[in-house]
Design brief:
The protein is of the alpha/beta class. The chain has two domains: about 10-200, Dna Ligase, domain 1 (2-Layer Sandwich); about 210-480, LigB-like (Protocatechuate 4,5-dioxygenase, Chain B). Helix content is about 35%, strand content about 25%. It is built from 16 helices and 18 strands. The strands form three sheets. Strands 8, 9, 10, 13, 14, 15, 16, 17 and 18 form a nine-stranded mixed β-sheet that branches. A hairpin with a 2-residue loop joins strand 11 (about 300-305) and strand 12.
């Protein structure tokens, strides 16, 4: 007789709590290795390596915010030894909806591991399909010649959907009309079950992880250290650095944050006038939905090609204490370029500079006063006084004559030194100045900290000068604030 002593191949339905804990801990190891771009040398125990599942999904969350969800469904290969590392690596680095996970996030991530089993094709139509779906038990897959979509069981539970709504949202996930499951015979419905295990965030990050990478090097500015330095020197020289007039102290400055080929000379012209102090606070807009509305960088250092710029971590903590709605975290900064593209200039002008990057999302004008007061309080505690940098472009994507007209309206309002006037002019005329809120916040903070503002425009240009495209342009201004 043969096969009597052969071990049974486990399925996802057979796993006990110990198995599930081993699997989710292995998942975290794969995610961390993928983020560090290192191979993960450990393997699963043999019985888990060979365990079969119809699919597997890895969900990464930071608090209540979804960071990534990626997995495998169906297919010939059903071994967890294949499915788990593939899904975990993809969740870490290749979910196209989100930026890749960063080292600084790893200690804050919870992991849901969903092992799929018991797929059942629902043969009925209409109301029979609704009756076949048990919310809290089933996940759903809809396949159709025009698209397919999958939602895990916990999605319906967390959203408090009934079966009908769950079916509609699964159809939408497939890019199909929400009633396709009811009306279209080409729509195939499959229910499935999962074994779900969650791993909570591990806690405090290791100190060597607290470095933000130079995400936009090689895109917005040169990615090679010497090429970057040459570009900085060229832009500063175009701005008059070294022409005889010594740099002077300023309280604030507005600098653009587009690619250097478009606005590097504007940045150079503004910074060539400034004696950069030991600490620079950069306030820029959030261009993405990631992270809280107000965020100050959590890292110890930010990388640029060939160097690392220290973050003023002591001031970051003080600012959080002064402004309760400010969060010290890294998620909001992952895909933001507003501070990063300015760091090489500041580092070149002062190699011992410390920076404090702040990202601001949408809020009402009245609310900006809270952050302005916090910044003013921070300025009162620090000597020598930090430089406040507004990271902002001007109007976006109008034809060149109209864009120039709107830019001049915004700049004239800013030159008045009245932050409320700047806000109102941009609001009333639909001027898409992306750093409007950072600008009015910094202007308020400086007014609270001392004398009335003296504002000077040192450079203005727009993207048409480089691109030649006058149909849709972006404006850039360099503005000094005494």
């Amino acid at each position: 007789m043969t096969g009597i002593n052969q071990a049974k191949t486990l399925t996802a339905a057979d796993l006990n709590d110990t198995h599930l804990r081993v699997l989710v801990e292995h998942t975290r190891g794969v995610v961390e290795a993928a983020v560090k771009r290192e191979p993960y040398e450990r393997t699963l125990p043999a019985e888990l390596e060979e365990t079969h599942a119809h699919g597997l999904f890895v969900t990464l969350r930071r608090g209540d915010v979804l960071r990534s969800c990626y997995g495998r469904w169906g297919g010939v290969q059903k071994r967890l030894g294949f499915l788990l590392p593939a899904a975990a690596g993809d969740a870490a680095c290749r979910d196209p909806r989100f930026p890749p996970i960063q080292l600084t996030e790893l200690p804050h991530l919870s992991i849901d591991l969903s092992l799929i089993y018991d797929p059942v094709v629902v043969s009925g139509v209409g109301e029979e399909r609704v009756s076949a779906v048990q919310v809290g038990v089933h996940g759903l897959v809809i396949t159709h010649p025009m698209g397919s979509g999958l939602l895990l069981p916990q999605v319906a539970v967390e959203a408090q959907w009934d079966a009908w709504t769950f079916l509609e949202h699964t159809a939408r996930k497939a890019g199909l009309p929400p009633d396709v499951w009811w009306a279209d015979p080409a729509a195939r419905l499959i229910t499935f079950r999962t074994r779900l295990v969650t791993d909570d965030p591990p806690g405090t990050p290791p100190r060597d992880a607290l470095v933000r990478p130079a995400v936009f090097a090689g895109q917005f500015y040169p990615g090679e250290p010497e090429a970057m330095k040459r570009a900085v020197r060229t832009h500063l020289a175009a701005g008059g650095l070294g022409d005889g007039a010594p740099p002077r102290p300023y309280r604030g400055v507005m600098l653009p944050h587009a690619g250097w080929r478009y606005c590097g000379d504007t940045t150079g012209r503004a910074l060539a006038h400034i004696q950069v102090p030991p600490t620079v606070i950069i306030v820029g807009p959030k261009h993405t939905p990631y992270g809280p509305t107000w965020s100050v960088a959590a890292e110890d250092r930010w990388s640029i090609p060939g160097a690392e710029v220290p973050v003023a971590t002591d001031l970051a903590q003080r600012l959080v204490e002064l402004v309760p709605s400010m969060h010290r975290e890294s998620y909001a900064h992952l895909a933001e370029h507003g501070a990063e593209v300015l760091l090489p200039f500041l580092y070149y002008l002062r190699p011992d500079v410390r920076v404090l990057p702040i990202a601001m999302g949408a809020t009402r004008y009245a609310t900006t006063r809270l952050l302005a007061e916090g910044l003013a309080g921070l300025l009162s505690q620090v000597e020598p006084k930090p430089l406040l940098v507004i990271s902002s472009d001007l109007n976006h994507f109008a034809p060149e004559p109209e864009n120039r007209r709107l830019d001049q309206m915004a700049l004239q309002a800013m030159l008045s030194g009245d932050p409320e006037r700047l806000f109102q002019v941009c609001h009333d005329h639909g001027i898409s100045m992306c750093g409007l809120l950072p600008a009015v916040t910094v202007m308020q903070a400086l007014r609270l900290s001392g004398s009335p503002l003296e504002v000077e425009l040192v450079d203005y240009r727009n993207s048409a000068a480089v691109s030649g495209d006058t149909a849709s342009v972006v404006g850039y201004g360099g503005v000094l604030i005494k």
